[in-house]
Structures are given as C-alpha cells and as structure tokens.
Amino acid sequence: MAVELKRHRFTRSDYHRMAQTGILSPDARVELIDGEIIEMNPIGSRHMAAVDRLTSIFVPRVQNAAIVRVQGSIALGDNGEPEPDVALLKFRPDFYATAPATEEAALLLIEVADTTEWYDRTTKVPLYARYGIQETWLVDLNRDLITRHLDPTPGGYATAQVFRRGDSLSPLAFPNLPIAVNDVLG
Fold this sequence. Notes:
Layout lengths: L11 H10 L8 E4 L2 E4 L5 H18 L3 E5 L15 E5 L15 E8 L3 H14 L4 E6 L4 E9 L2 E9 L3 E2 L9 E2 H5 L1
C-alpha cells in the first residue's frame, strides 16, 4: 500500500525568519518555490556573462522608467520568493525598500538557463504564469535562443515565441526597445 508523504510548506515569513535566526546562512543560494526551499546551482561564467549583458542592455535604456533587479527576489503569494536572473519592475522611488516587489510590480522576468534549463522551463516559468506575470523570457544558452512567454494562465503561458541569433525582440512594457538576441547570447 502506497503512503502519501506530507510535505511541510514554508511561508515567506517562515523563510525570512530562518534567515534571521541563522538556519539559512547569509550566503545560502536558495529560493522559496511553492513553499519549498530550493537550493540553487552555482552560477557559471556563461550564465553570469549573459546576466551581465542583459544588465548592460537594460540599465541605461529603462533608467527612471523601470527598475532592473539582478538576481533578486520577487514575492509571489505567501509561499513563493523566487530569484529571477533579471527582473524589470515598475519604477518606485523607494526601489521597493518599504515593501517587496510582487507580481503586480513585474514587467518582465528573465531566467538564464544552462545547467538549470529543465527546472527553469518546467518549474519557474509555469510558476510565473500562475501568478499572472505578463512576460517571461527564458534565455537558453544550450540551444542558443530566447523563448518569450506571453498570455499567462493558471496552467502556464498560452504563447511561446522562439527567437534565434539574428532576431530581435522587445519587452511588452517597452515596445520601442529592440533587443538583439546576439547581444544577449554574446
């Protein structure tokens, strides 16, 4: 007879208390996904280079119109605090110092994937859709492409568009800001 194991789900409050009390060390590379604390893979040089390229593309072009958050968290409900590689957030003068950025603040979330491609595609991207994030990009370093996800539903994104080298794409929030795939992939 199979026994279903019960899992203990953590809230964002639990997660932050664990960090404050030292259960999670300050340098722990973890994120809270659907109430579970997930250890993140170390960041490789190709991954970091893509994040750095995205940062250098977005920061000067959206300054004072959006906040570019690099590998920082976004609060999703009571049980989620993922850390997308790059997030474009609605501009707030306090830079979200007084309250966390939530799904309402997210203009674009970007995951850069090499060793984490399957996890990002099957766990994080659908999570963003469930919370109504209007646009998510998955930068796939293994396949040399960017998949743009649009039209969020509770079951995932209804639209996925693939952009390859030589193509350009623009964030929904900034339609006059073309981004060359080559500039992201290097």
